[in-house]
Amino acid sequence: MAHPGKSSKTPSALTNNGKPWTDIWNQVDDDDFTGWVTNWDEAQQVRQKFENSSSLRFVGHKKSKNFDLFQGEETNQSYDSDHAGHAARDLHGQGDGTDGSDEDEMEIDEEIDNHDVVNDDDGSDDNDRDENEAPPIPGQRRMPNAPEGWSNDLPDINVRAYTEQVGPKCNLAYDAPELDYLMCLIGDDFFEMIARNTNINAASKRPPVEPDDRDEFACSDPAWTPTNKDEIKAFISINILMGINHTSEYQDCWSNDPALRNEFVSSLMTKNRYEKLSQYLHCSNVRQPVEENDKVHKVSNFIKTLQRNFPLMFVPGQSLSVDEAMIKFNGRLSWKQYMPPKPTKWGIKLWCLCDSVTGYCLAFQVYTGRAVNQQEVQTFGLGYTVVMGLMREFLLQNHIVYADNFFSSIPLVEDLLQADTCYCGTLRKDRVGVPRALSEVKLDKYDNVKWAKDQVMLTKWKDKRDFYTISTSNDGSDIHKPRTRFQQRNIITIPSVIAEYNAQMGGVDHADQLRSYYNVGRTGRWWKYLFWGLLNVAIINAYILWEVSSRPHPRNRRSWSLKSFKMALVHQLGDGFSSLKHRASSDGDRPIEKIVAREPVPGHSLVAFAERKKVCRQCKKVGRKAPCGDSIQTKFG
In this predicted model, what pLDDT tens digit does every residue of 45-57 receive, in sequence order? Predict the structure, then answer.
């Protein structure tokens, strides 16, 4: 029977009286096998077990010197550096005629990592251990004594089962169009609200010379006509499409060059109409009073709608992640944030709570500075306030929250535990309540130490640097895995809490990744950046609802990709509409005045049209332009 610790690199040249080393090794019974010797304590125990039948040696590097760990002193023994570190075993009296002499001893050495030899800073030897101290478990490093209030004993974890049925709650048919999933999140009156507030904004910016109380949308801008919900749908359709078909200038969609012109966009509305809609677009009523200290009042109604609908349309899994998300903005704004680790470094920060598996955004908050909830922030800290605010709808449901060291603190973990919610995250070593002795523990690479208090467990693990975690959902076990996927034979030991955190923390990052693929909207002012960014979040959530609801998916990945979903929205919003039919009436209906009695051309009289000028057809036909480059306009015909 093959042993799990036996190396596949055993040299076939090593023999004992003509028998290969592998055959001798296979003669060891399973009950006697103890695996490779990794430290002094294990070597002592194995030596005592086999002192009558075998001689065992452990040779390795310690501060670039050879040590015989049985003797605890330096030795000049030479060995093969390519195989240094294996246990050597000489089996006696097993029918091969050996007598246990030194000539028949066999020793296989293999290179060991630094974490295999514990380097005590005080230079003390394990023989100096107190007689009353319990011997360490073979293969496990002795943990330093925990400070008062903490224990080296691993906690008894009680994570209750999560019984909710995960999935969408929008109650749509299996073959429902993609737009219906979006309407569940933004509201059925979204387009009407945008159209009404846009008309009010245009009338407020350009009020008529003679106010008319009967027309609340009266505007003095001659190039503006009131819009409606169908035109707003087409306008948003164009902005979604511009995120897929990137152009250096949005004017290229209406270019006369067929290589640049987008026939779908130009058929929906003219360039001038698109610019006017972008100019007067608004999602709040500018005539209503603004709440005090409401820095996002221009989009507050839209924010409240999304915050209300997001948690109602999806039941998340047990694992939730909390993190920051950024909406790009480089203009002037007092609460603009700078985050170097993020791909989007400058912009408007969102606190997001997402499902760890799908990336569905369940709740979010727009960060406008510490002035909001200042008293609560001063009492509990910003990270505590954010997590508790986002989790308000999801407490007492046996969830597990994952967050980074910005949010983690012992009071937060304990209060969530009282609300039947577990926590797992990285931790800053200088947080209030974290023992200072934890940061003073010296560890070798890939070594760890764990301290527990009740169900709260602190872990310190060293990779390239020290990592600190806090958890109420992990049992404190260790796992073995390859160092990287390219180094499958380099097996390291890591705490399972590290692997759990890495596997479940990426919910917000997954949502950010989807959001970055096809941005929505050509922006201007800061609130438009925020408006289009939140609309993009709603589209990503709608895509997740549609993707989960439409399973099993077709074998063709492109048919259910994010791009195909957004293209379906483009057509469902824009197909069948064209604002070109709303242009001014034809020339035959305009009042005319004859200015020349005779007819220079038989059947035609030179006339002057009323109202505004229009492009001269003859000049356009021959390509004649004005000195400025514009088309020649005239009121004569």
Answer: 655 555 544 444 4
Q: What is the pLDDT of residue 580?
A: 76
Taking alpha carbons only, the member of 191, 201, 154 closest to residue 454 is 154
| Token output for 142 | 């002795």
Q: Coil, helix or strand for 93?
A: coil
Q: What is the DSSP letter of 505?
A: T
> Which residue type, as a one-letter code, is found at position 567?
M
Whether the Cβ atoms of residue 311 and residue 341 lie closer than 8 Å to each other: no
Structure token digits, residue 410: 């012992």
DSSP letters for 572-612 = HHHTT--GGGGSPPPGGGS-EEE--SS-SBTTB--EEESSS
Nearest to 28 by CA among 57, 48, 53: 53
Return d(Cα 135, Cα 580) in angstroms, integer. 87
Task: Count, in order, helices (H) and strands (E) of the chain.
Answer: 17, 23
Residue 18 falls in which region: left (phi positive, over 0), alpha (psi -120 to 50) or beta: left
Between CA 494 and CA 255 the distance in angstroms is 59
Residue 415 has phi, psi (to 5 degrees) of -70, -35
The Cα–Cα gap between 86 and 9 comes to 11
Measured between alpha carbons, how far is 144 from 124 in angstroms, rounded to an integer? 14
For the chain, what is the radius of gyration of the CA atoms?
37
pTM for the full model?
0.70
| Closest among 420, 382, 385 to 401, alpha carbons compared | 420
Cα–Cα distance between 492 and 485 in angstroms, integer? 12
Q: What are phi and psi of 366, to 5 degrees?
A: -90, 120
- pLDDT tens for each residue of 81-138: 333 333 333 333 334 444 443 444 333 333 333 333 333 444 444 444 444 444 443 3
Nearest Cα to Cα of residue 313 among 408, 178, 441, 171: 171
Short-list 531, 515, 514, 534, CA closest to 523: 531
Alpha carbons 590 and 611: distance in angstroms, whole number: 8
H/E segment holding residue 466: strand 466-471
What is the Cα–Cα distance from 25 to 1, expressed in whole angstroms?
10
Preceding omega of 343 cis (within 30 degrees of 0): no
Residue 395 tokens read as: 């407490």
Q: Rounded to an integer, what distance in angstroms lies between the CA atom of residue 381 and that of residue 390? A: 15
Q: Give pLDDT < 50 ranges for the chain.
A: 1-38, 52-140, 582-588, 592, 594-597
**Tokens encoding 475:** 């049992």
Between β-strands 314-315 and 167-168, what pairing exists: parallel, antiparallel or unpaired?
antiparallel
CA distance 362 to 355: 7
Among 603, 521, 550, 510, residue whose Cα is nearest residue 194? 521
Model pLDDT for residues 280-326, shown as the tens digit of each residue: 999 999 988 888 888 999 999 999 999 999 999 999 999 999 999 99
Lookup result for tokens 């197909």: 575
**What secondary structure does DSSP assign to 21-44, as a single string?**
HHHHHHTS-GGG------SHHHHH
With beta carbons less than 8 A apart as the criterion, state whether 409 and 382 touch: no
Report the 10 Å Cβ neighbour count for 537. Answer: 24
